[in-house]
Amino acid sequence: MNAENQSPDVDFDVIVVGAGVAGCVTAYQLAVKGHSVLLAERGPKPGSKNLSGGVFYCSVMKEVMPEFEAEAPIERRVTRNCLSFLSPTSFVNLDYRDERLAQNGTAVTVLRAKLDDWLATKCEDVGVTLMPGIKVDGLLKDADRIVGIKAGDDTLRSHVVVAADGVNSFLCRDAGIRATEPTNHLAVGVKSVIRLPREVIEERFNLNGDEGAAYAVVGDCTNGVGGGGFLYTNIDSISIGVVLRLDDLVERGESSSDLHDRFLSNPAIAPFLKGGELLEYGSHLVAEGGRAMVHDLTRPGLVVVGDAAGLTLNTGLTLRGMDLAAGSGIVAAKTIDTALQQGDFSQASLDAYTAELDATFVGQDMRTYAKAPDFFLNPRMYGDYGRLLSDVLYGVYNLDMKPRRHLLPMVMAALKESPVKAMQLARDAYAAVRAL
Ligand SMILES: Cc1cc2nc3c(=O)[nH]c(=O)nc-3n(C[C@H](O)[C@H](O)[C@H](O)COP(=O)(O)OP(=O)(O)OC[C@H]3O[C@@H](n4cnc5c(N)ncnc54)[C@H](O)[C@@H]3O)c2cc1C
To answer: Is the C-beta atom of 284 inside 6 A of ligand 1?
Structure first.
């Protein structure tokens, strides 16, 4: 609502809870359109509580801030993507490097403490009122309508509240939108940031200038627990960690920090980190349920964005949440702008958000990868396939003066030794094609 229309019974047109990517993009877009916006963040500084592996597929930011790529605290541009299978004794990589990624790459590495702080400053530049250190405890309701927020003894009123409070959204629970998320929809991420001189990183990862490498690792890094490892290069540090499916972790009685340490000390991984200094260590929940996690996204006076809306995708090759958070923020701001102009904050008015989001890359990708979470329930992904692959390659490269066989008989021999059966392999390959 523009200043002249501003209703006296609200403190702000819109209150956005959570200064992550989703909240900052929503707040920024609304302030640019002339609305009064409060951005409340529980951390002492935006980003201080946030944690991401760190690859941001950032094309979407061009729609929000054309200057994003030139000015944002980007670490490196990802020009090398590796899909790696790790076993206790082998490291098999599908290593993809492409000049086109260096020229038109859409993926950059970021550190959230820097990125979120920068995004929040950009929000302030366009007039958003940023309130860090405020933990929102609940929603203010008037009959079935959300009319503001509660924080401690304080209340603040608005026409619309945006729940951008992340994967564990307390606001969604308070609005009756969702109950506690089942553990098979969640994973826990444990991450370290290790400082290394920039020349060492460039040499170790075969990078020039601001090029970057991103490794997605499956297999022994999780000791059989559903999930995987990641390793991303920053300017003068490495982001490295594991993402572990919560239900499997609990069932197997494993400790997430022990698995993190085990991954970092694997003989194939440790040389990447040699001589490095630990800068940061943290853990955070990851939304892993895909489309099954996406619930109602609106109530009268409330719109849900980003992880709070369940918008994260793990395809094994890419882990995406930040671009989906930004995409949902753009659509949310557009819907709320229309609602403010029309003075209509009903469910029907705000439901335009759900319909529009469904038509964007966010909704479409959530549908495309709807089968991915089920595919990754397959335990063979986290052990057997890595070993099978390395047994086949061992047969190819270990020329021990025994007569060689063609590849197919070698694969069949490796399969015979492996717990994986040929029919399972065919079925899993078919499932992979359908899910990914
Ligand atoms: C280990 C790990 C690796 C990942 N790797 C990647 C990756 O490489 N690429 C990628 O795109 N995505 C990745 N993700 C997912 C990505 O981090 C999330 O999808 C993304 O951060 C979602 O953004 P968001 O703004 O919705 O939520 P968040 O970034 O979680 O922001 C929520 C904000 O709300 C604040 N908040 C919460 N509750 C309250 C409250 N009550 N009051 C006030 N403030 C509150 C929080 O402090 C936080 O600032 C990863 C996640 C993890 C954990």
So the answer is: yes
Separation of alpha carbons 223 and 315, rounded Å: 20
* Structure-block tokens of residue 415: 């399969």
Q: What one-character-per-residue DSSP string does 85-108 give?
A: EE-SS-EEEEEEE-HHHHHH--EE
* Tokens of residue 205, six digits: 């990862």
Q: What is the pLDDT of residues 182-210, one digit of tens each?
A: 888 999 999 999 999 999 999 999 999 99
Q: Answer yes or no: is the C-beta of 90 below 6 A from any ligand 1 atom.
A: no
Alpha carbon of 328 to ligand 1 centroid (Å): 13
Cβ distance 346 to 302 under 8 Å?
no
Atom of ligand 1 nearest to the CA of 284: 53
Distance in Å, CA 189 to ligand 1 centroid: 11
The type of residue at 247 is D
Residues 79 and 101: beta-carbon distance below 8 Å: yes
Annotate 288-346 with DSSP letters as a single string: --GGGG----EETTEEE-GGGGT--EE-SS-EESHHHHHHHHHHHHHHHHHHHHHT--S
Chain segment 344-384, per-residue pLDDT in tens: 999 999 999 999 999 999 999 999 998 888 887 788 887 78
DSSP 176: T
CA–centroid distance, residue 248 to ligand 1 (Å): 22
Q: How far apart are CA 185 and CA 40, in angstroms?
A: 27
- Per the DSSP assignment, residues forming a β-bridge with 21 are none
| Cβ-Cβ contacts under 8 Å for 194 (sequence gap 6 or more) | 237, 238, 240, 273, 276, 277, 278, 279
> Residue 13, Cα to own-chain centre: how many angstroms?
29
Ligand 1 centroid to Cα of residue 294, in Å, is 16
Q: What integer pLDDT is reported at residue 436 of this predicted model?
A: 76
Task: Please work out whether the CB of residue 165 comes within 6 Å of at least one atom of ligand 1.
Answer: yes
Query: Is this model's pTM higher than 0.90 or not?
Result: yes
| Residue 78 region by backbone torsions, left for phi larger than 0, else alpha for psi between -120 and 50, else beta | beta
Dihedral angle sign, alpha carbons of residues 371, 377, 380, 383: positive
List beta partners, residue 85. Answer: 92, 218
Count Cβ atoms below 10 Å from residue 273 Cβ, excluding itself.
18
Task: Answer whether 281 contacts ligand 1 (Cβ < 6 A).
Answer: no
Each residue's pLDDT tens digit, 90-118:
999 999 998 888 888 799 999 999 999 99
Report strand pairing: 107-110 vs 55-57.
Answer: antiparallel
Q: What is the pLDDT of residue 77?
A: 96
